[in-house]
Amino acid sequence: MERSTKAALERRLAGFVATCGVLLAANYLLPYAGLRDDSCQTMFSELQWSREGNNHAFMPQHMIGDSWDFFYDVHLEWEDDPAVFRQEAPEEEARHEALRAWMHRPERRHNRDALRLVVDRLCRDGRRFSLRFRSAHDGPVVAPDEVCADPSLRRVRWWIPVRRFETDEPLPPWMRP
Question: How far apart are CA 90 and CA 97, in angstroms?
Fold first, then answer.
């Protein structure tokens, strides 16, 4: 191999490795910006998030957005006729029922961004539904009039990766009824 070709290949390889390292480091720094901690190496015991930040002892983070919010007692009801939708799109109906069942899991709280993905999907598919939830464990029930028109429930952040079905978690023992 020619010397200049080998040097060019080594520079490209070094650039690729450096880019991967920067992206990995940026991912691991996302919790410190209050953006997310899913797939980040945040090896903290009982790290608890609130609207103001978290309980990290040495480096408390502050919230930039509402991605750390969780909803409790989520309940979704179809307003359109499920029988008609089932005949028109049986595969979609099965997927919608799976999403509805995921929302209705007892004693779970759901991440706001994961709920946004579900609401956006159902709205894009043309489903009409009502949604009720609590934004705090002991807070009042919220029931938006037009779920699909509410930007706080449909503003999906595609630049933040969210695993749809693993972003709900059990209620901590002190929150269970």
Answer: 11
With 80 as the cut, is the pLDDT of residue 151 above it? yes
- CA gyration radius, the chain: 21
Q: How many residues does the structure list for the chain?
A: 177
Secondary structure of residue 168 in the 3-state scheme? strand
> Edge-to-edge strands of the sheet including 129-134?
141-142, 129-134, 70-78, 108-111, 168-170
What tokens does 135 get?
């934004």
Single-letter amino acid code for the residue at 67: S
Residue with tokens 């999907």: 121
User: What proportion of the chain, given as a percentage, has pLDDT over 90?
Assistant: 11
Query: CA–CA distance from 115 to each of 71, 76, 100, 111, 176 (Å)?
Result: 8, 11, 11, 6, 21
pLDDT category at 34 given cuts 50, 70, 90 is: low
CA pair distance 64, 172, nearest whole angstrom:
24
Q: Which amino acid is at 56?
A: H
pLDDT band of residue 159 (cuts 50, 70, 90) is: low
Identify the burial level of 165 via C-beta atoms within 10 angstroms of its C-beta, where 0-12 means exposed, 13-18 middle and 19 or more buried: exposed
* pTM assigned to the model: 0.63
